[in-house]
Amino acid sequence: xxxxxxxxxxxxxxxxxxxxxxxxxxxxxxxxxxxxxxxxxxxxxxxxxxxxxxxxxxxxxxxxxxxxxxxxxxxxxxxxxxxxxxxxxxxxxxxxxxxxxxxxxxxxxxxxxxxxxxxxxxxxxxxxxxxxxxxxxxxxxxxxxxxxxxxxxxxxxxxxxxxxxxxxxxxxxxxxxxxxxxxxxxxxxxxxxxxxxxxxxxxxxxxxxxxxxxxxxxxxxxxxxxxxxxxxxxxxxxxxxxxxxxxxxxxxxxxxxxxxxxxxxxxxxxxxxxxxxxxxxxxxxxxxxxxxxxxxxxxxxx
Length: 302
Description:
Number of helices: 10
CATH topology of the largest domain: Spore Coat Polysaccharide Biosynthesis Protein SpsA, Chain A
Helix content: 40-55%
CATH superfamily of the largest domain: Spore Coat Polysaccharide Biosynthesis Protein SpsA, Chain A
Largest sheet: 7 strands, mixed
Number of strands: 10
Strand order of the largest sheet: 3-2-1-4-8-6-9
Mean pLDDT: 93
Distance between the termini: 33 Å
Shape: globular
Strand content: 15-25%
């Protein structure tokens, strides 16, 4: 009997998160005629540190496979999952998330209804523990949502909640050059769109992202915004239809100045009011950093 859906998970030193995610996958409802498998790729170079994830996969009640990808790079981990997946459809979720019980049913219903090549759904932030009073988790960590059936552009895609036809991915893979900075998922899905893939939004296919206390701080938010700006500039400059560097630099400078001024003005109403314009200013700063020849790399926090 063949596999219909392979659910791919890249993990790195997050055993509690992986355990929560696997438990949520065990609880989820699934169309009766779908054959499922879970593929967990541990991206920890230290083989001794992978024992916990291997044990969690072994204890899973669903058909599950464990893979070790020692090259510390999330693109390599995602590619290892794709290579191992046997399903006609491949889903991606992250090890700091849990899926709602009807997540898979909603994904399957959407691709059947729209006869599309894949769908993406909401990632709802939820605090694991209460942080500073001025931190608004639901707002500061939220991602854009769209009406169900919306045809997506590159910016609306991500592996944190994705469901794609295996044949659409084909031989394409995530780019390791973006595996330590972020953006390898958006870049790959952008290539699929350029090749004519029909990717839709399914607002009913919900996963929840668990935001730990250590992320509930201004430094983490600004770092992530800066990195996002750097990666966005890299992807935009790779677009042959995009405008030239000089125009983009000027736009980023104006954005940095404008959002910086808005952030200063908002401080009179408190830190919470200043966060959003400050984040947008950091995005523009990241763009300028890239345009100036810089590149922001980090071990991507998964």
